[in-house]
Fold this protein.
Amino acid sequence: IKMHNIFFTKLLYISFFLLILLIYSSCTNDRTNIIMAAASLEEILSIEYEQAENKNNFFISYGGSLSIARRVENNQNKIGAVILASDSSINILVNKGIIDNKNIRTLAKNSLVLASKNKVESYEEFLNKINLNSNYKIVIADEKIAPAGKYSKQVIDKILSEEIKDKKLISSGDVSYVSNLLIYNEDYYGIIYKSEAIKNDLQVIYEFPNHLHDEIVYRVGILNNNNNLSISNFIDKLTSSELLIKLDDLGFSVEK
């Protein structure tokens, strides 16, 4: 009888241990571990991520802000935070109850510039060339997937005629894709973020006044279902004075 009791006691302990292990495993699998961020922030965020103390507890995925917002809208699994380049993108998540306004903060602002690979010329010279029957094209991001495309389209509609847009305008990809086209095509002009031009060592021909397009503002939002302290700590450190100086050096506008 004594041996029988010892056997069942051990069995009870083993069952309890397995139950605890199962609960822990389930909680671990449900833990958020992804930050999704605008592609135009990849350079600066990659540096901050490499210096993060608990970087093994999460990773950062990059893409067009509108595409990210639509992705999160449909499936928030594993996603703890977003960093997006437009109010319209983050408002999608606010309106769906995925992020509360109290969990949103402003990281930085940006501007739009006319850029090219190596042309040193004036804005007036650009307008003359693009309006002539020449091989020059102007490239912008696709407004369906990237806020940069929407902002650029707002500028294009104010500076070019419908006829010239039909002949000269190329709209494709996100802002990083546009930058790559400029790097490898000397006959292309592009409208991109100022930070993107600096990052890729492109020639800035002209910086467009802000009244020509909607405000370009980067918002950081922590999802309501985030349960990863490492993600929260990383987001908190994005407001440090050291990071703001780096953002300023890269062409972003920040409040110091």
About this structure: The longest strand covers residues 104-110.
